Amino acid sequence: MGLCLPKQRPTRTSEQHRSGCRWKLLGKSETREKMEKALRAYGAILRLVRRLPKATRPYYAKYARENFVNYREVDAADPNALNDLFDRTYTHSLWVLNKYSVDHAAADKLKEICRS
Fold it and tell me: Which residues touch 66 (CB under 8 Å, ≥6 apart)?
């Protein structure tokens, strides 16, 4: 199982995901690829958050960050757990986009990442 450790401590800002915290990936190459896939999915989610109404962006950016941090301890060796997590990521994103009438085509990149 790979570990995800912060290389530097994030500063206290209202948008900590933009504070310059870079993640150092440790472990086997397979685990590293899965971790990089998770980071790409997280980046895609944050790009989708920018398409939401301005008043809702801080809430959903914080929600995405909390979930990313909470699920980083998922066992990378269990493909079912990771696939289920990526599937939920995509379906929850579609639900939020639908709630705010954002075109689902905006999530095509996330779909490509999560379903690969």
Answer: none
Closest by Cα among 42, 41, 51 to 17: 42
Q: How many CB atoms lie within 10 A of CB 64?
A: 21
* pLDDT, tens only, 54-90: 999 999 999 999 888 888 777 767 778 888 888 989 9
Largest CA distance in the chain: 41
E strand map for 1-116: 4-6, 23-25
Number of H helices and number of E strands within the chain?
4, 2
What is this structure's pTM?
A: 0.70
